[in-house]
Amino acid sequence: MSVKPTEYDFTRQIYDRTGTARSAVWEYFGYYMNEMGYLDRNYAICKLCRVGIKHQGSNTSNLAYHINRKHPELQFTLKQSPPTSANGENSR
Ligand SMILES: [Zn+2]
How many domains does the chain contain in total? Predict the structure, then answer.
């Protein structure tokens, strides 16, 4: 039985993001370390499907978006701006 190489390398270690301003999405994302021993912070790696998502700084909205789209079973909710109420929009 041969093993096909997969697109995403599940053997690599994913390192948790450390430091301040840790968003809850980092429960599900981490970083790969490159050959030089630096964490590649350009891409957040999903711990569940190993897809790399480009993100910048502390902006985690696209990471939360990925969780909600690809892993809805987690029922992840990012505490962001409250949902806008549609009440009163239909008033004529
Ligand atoms: Zn994923």
Answer: 1
Task: Please tell me the pTM assigned to this model.
Answer: 0.69
CA–centroid distance, 56 to ligand 1, in Å, is 18
Cβ-in-10-Å burial (0-12, 13-18, 19+) of 60 comes to: buried
- Is residue 71 assigned to a domain? yes
The tens-digit pLDDT sequence of the chain (92 residues) is 555 545 567 788 999 987 766 688 898 999 999 889 999 989 999 999 999 999 877 788 899 999 999 999 887 776 554 555 555 555 45
- Cα 85 to middle of ligand 1, angstroms: 29
Q: How far is the CA of 21 from the centre of ligand 1 (A)?
A: 21
Reduced to 3 states (helix: H, G, I; strand: E, B; else coil), residue 82 is coil
The CA 20 to ligand 1 mean position distance, Å, reads 23
**Domain boundaries, position 37:** 24-78
